[in-house]
Write a structure and sequence with these properties.
Protein name: MT21C methyltransferase
Structural class: alpha/beta
Number of domains: 1
CATH topology: Rossmann fold
CATH architecture: 3-Layer(aba) Sandwich
Helix content: 25-40%
Distance between the termini: 17 Å
Number of helices: 6
Order of helices and strands: EEEHEHEHEHEHEHEE
Largest sheet: 8 strands, mixed
CATH superfamily: Vaccinia Virus protein VP39
GO molecular function, one term: methyltransferase activity
Strand content: 25-35%
Strand order of the largest sheet: 1-9-10-8-7-4-5-6
Pfam families: Methyltransf_16
Keywords: Methyltransferase, S-adenosyl-L-methionine, Transferase
Shape: globular
Length: 221
């Protein structure tokens, strides 16, 4: 599917001026909700990267194509939780996952943005790519309509376990939406591996941010 004709988009400045004097809080507006995200400088996973902004914006703008209402959604590498919060606002049953050291900040952001709403409260769980998947998320119990991932591919050693995790959770009927800033040759190599396994389409490109948004589904024989 190299003949994709993705739409070309710009990441909109969806954050509003800060009213707080804390350097670590960002305010965003998606789907009519103001979302306050606390970032943490200690962890890669605790900063809002451009892929998260791109996917949040795309989900907000394409609700007919990707209707998340009452769908089961798993986010891997959820980081600050922005995408999971947006999916939750759009009506999904969300499970937000990341490494143990990121979960406290992730839980905090999700709780503060979802409290006092009638949304399905997201579940926050530990997920180390490629580890304990069948024990922690047995196939018999867990089936997701959407698998969301943003900026999970960069210079790190866990790319093969990441791919294995995507393969594990992508069952027939699951849609993987992956947004990533493409910086390194390893990013493109990962994309090639993904294309070898899944039916893959580039839905959108954000050239100013070097972000591509891809949709992938299982090849059914």
């Amino acid at each position: 599917s190299l003949t994709d004709s993705p739409v070309t988009l710009k990441i909109l400045q969806n954050w509003v001026p800060r009213f707080s004097h804390y350097f670590d809080k960002e305010h965003y507006t998606y789907v009519g909700h103001q979302i306050v995200i606390q970032e943490s400088i200690e962890h890669f996973g605790a900063v809002v990267w451009p892929g998260a902004l791109a996917l949040s914006q795309y989900l907000e703008s394409n609700q007919e194509q990707f209707n998340l209402k009452d769908k089961k959604v798993l986010e891997i590498g959820a980081g600050t939780g922005l995408v999971s919060i947006v999916a939750c606002i759009l009506g999904a049953y969300v499970t937000a996952t990341d490494l143990p050291e990121v979960l406290e900040n992730l839980s905090y952001n999700i709780s503060r943005n979802i409290q006092n709403t009638n949304m399905h409260k997201p579940e926050v769980r530990k997920l180390v790519w490629g580890e304990g998947l069948s024990e922690d998320f047995p196939v018999s119990t867990y089936h997701y309509d959407f698998l969301l991932a943003t900026d999970v591919v960069y210079h790190h050693a866990a790319l093969d376990p990441l791919l294995a995790t995507m393969v594990y959770f992508c069952k027939p009927g699951t849609v993987l939406l992956w947004a990533n800033k493409f910086r390194f040759s390893t990013d493109y190599e990962f994309l090639e591996k993904l294309r070898n396994i899944f039916n893959t389409t580039i839905l959108a490109e954000f050239p100013e941010s070097n972000v591509k948004l891809l949709k992938a589904t299982v090849r059914e024989n």
